[in-house]
User: Fold this.
Amino acid sequence: MANLKQLAHSLGLSITTVSRALDGYSDVSAATRARVREAAVAAGYRPNASARRLRKQRAELVAVTLPSDPGHVGPPHFLDMLSGCAEHLAAAGLNLVIAPVPRGVSELEICQRFVDGRRVDAMLLVRTKRKDERVEYLQSRGIPFVTNGRTESLIPHPFIDGDGFAGFRAATLRFHAAGHRRIGHIAGPQEYYFAHVRRRGWQAAMEECGLAIDLCAEGAPLEQGGYLAALELLRQPSRPTALVCATDEMAIGALRALREVDGGSQISIVGHDDLPMGAFTSPPLSTMRMTGENLGATFASLLLRAIAGEPAEDLQELHAVEFVDRDSHRRPPLAA
Amino acid sequence: MANLKQLAHSLGLSITTVSRALDGYSDVSAATRARVREAAVAAGYRPNASARRLRKQRAELVAVTLPSDPGHVGPPHFLDMLSGCAEHLAAAGLNLVIAPVPRGVSELEICQRFVDGRRVDAMLLVRTKRKDERVEYLQSRGIPFVTNGRTESLIPHPFIDGDGFAGFRAATLRFHAAGHRRIGHIAGPQEYYFAHVRRRGWQAAMEECGLAIDLCAEGAPLEQGGYLAALELLRQPSRPTALVCATDEMAIGALRALREVDGGSQISIVGHDDLPMGAFTSPPLSTMRMTGENLGATFASLLLRAIAGEPAEDLQELHAVEFVDRDSHRRPPLAA
DNA sequence: ATTGATCTCCAAAACGTTTTGGTTGACTCT
DNA sequence: AGAGTCAACCAAAACGTTTTGGAGATCAAT
Assistant:
């Protein structure tokens, strides 16, 4: 409740000494230090955050911009990631603030508001686009940041990402090895890096196998988007026998399309993200996931290292993608 | 980039005048005001947030505590709500910070850290418990706050909540009217208010109909919890013919249990929350939802009014619950 | 007894704003 | 001419920390 001045007065000490005692400096005697600390807890003293921030010229805050378009912020377990990240940042004295992007305002403006108002020490970027104006701005400002997902920026920046290209290529090759020849792709919006690179992985595998890359439909990265895209592919004269979907949510939408058109799922399908929900769909959804423990913690740790000044090149983590085999990918290739 | 002092110097004015010009006070001439504002945008001036906060004794921040237990934070679309809330708070100059609760730390401690360190002006509480220590603490501190979900606190506090009792009672009565007699309930953890009140709604309806209330199983508010709880009910000698589930996620888990035990869903089922995913399950999940537009905005608006000093009694919103009928509730009562 | 270390402690400045309580000069009214 | 009003500006204080640059003891060594 009290402030430093009151605490110092009640102890008969100077503000300086109390402050330094609490911070553990060696130029205050052990006895005094103990006495001060005891009084501090007794009084329930907590330093005023604004005052410290002003003096230390650090905001002790990190912002993450969230596009307000529902579904465009990220997969459903995304909040768990943010929460884990915030937890690790908090251990370093940083709090995570949400920077929503209202409709009609650019993400860039939001970044500027936070950075130029010195409201934050660093930023977290999610759902990166191939050409991401936020990245360019933050690089020009020299503000530390980490992105979840890569970009096509020429200047390297810290990121953490899954190797979507390799994952989708492998998934496609696996379908090919299982005998599938008409392998479709349900793609996410191509301005997003993750969606683009996943499509490229599928495409590369198709070309390696000498197959046509015409079975591709794009939609919003949500159930509805996957549903509509799948319907589109199922209208083709030569239907796919297998579907590689950019996200689990899209795959779940596609599953419904298959049920409606097919009367049951005769088509193999695989998604990406390993949503918990996937284990409970019908059939249980086979999927992929980025390897590595606790994405949020890694994200936080990269950011702390970026703040500490480590060069961007040392702060780029590209994680392999692993299969989570359940049942939806096991349909025979001749079914459709 | 610059600060007030530099800006004032470059204009040949005092800091006071520049500050007041920017804030639109009437004691600076229109001409000067225009000149100052022009110079400010030219210099890209933004007031230093820490300095203003210190001086104004307001943190300009609001925190929302997030239990780090995955699945215990809230339904998947929860982040959308937070994002919408943050957006409306931002319009009032408040930013939303995430206060994760690390394992082994109580939510109370987190509240204290934020409140006593004057890091926030107000708090948002989600997933309230029947006896919620956070509520008691904040009330004792006199800090404005709003909860998403009611509590059993004796002192009234601002909240926004759906009428789970009425909703679950109505759902159960509807099953009864459709001829069901063995209506089970898949309950969430009873320390949560929402889970408790939903069970009571089911129970009240059962008693009104003169039915036994033995078909009730409790689990974590996730797919897996619903799955396990449903299996438990299906092991009973006298199986339920209809299932009222505390959340959509639990209902989706229960759907899988029905598929496994039943070989298909012969049992009616209804959930709560209206997850987008529910439209894509097999069968499409019938559910309930709190009425009202844009929960996040309402949440924010209640908080702003609480900060403005409106009494708690005027800030309690209990919204009716409406059915979202898809298909899963239409199974005939004799099926099991 | 002086010098130099060493140990404790502290006054004051600084961080960048907002706000208080003025001052100055021009103008109006009697 | 003097009193009063008003418009336009500003110096200084305040918010609560952290940090700089000492100051005053105490003690050991000369």
Chain A touches chain B through 61 residues (CB under 8 Å). Residues 13-17, 20, 26-29, 32, 51, 53-57 of chain A lie near DNA strand C (CB under 10 Å from a C1'). Chain A has a mean pLDDT of 93.
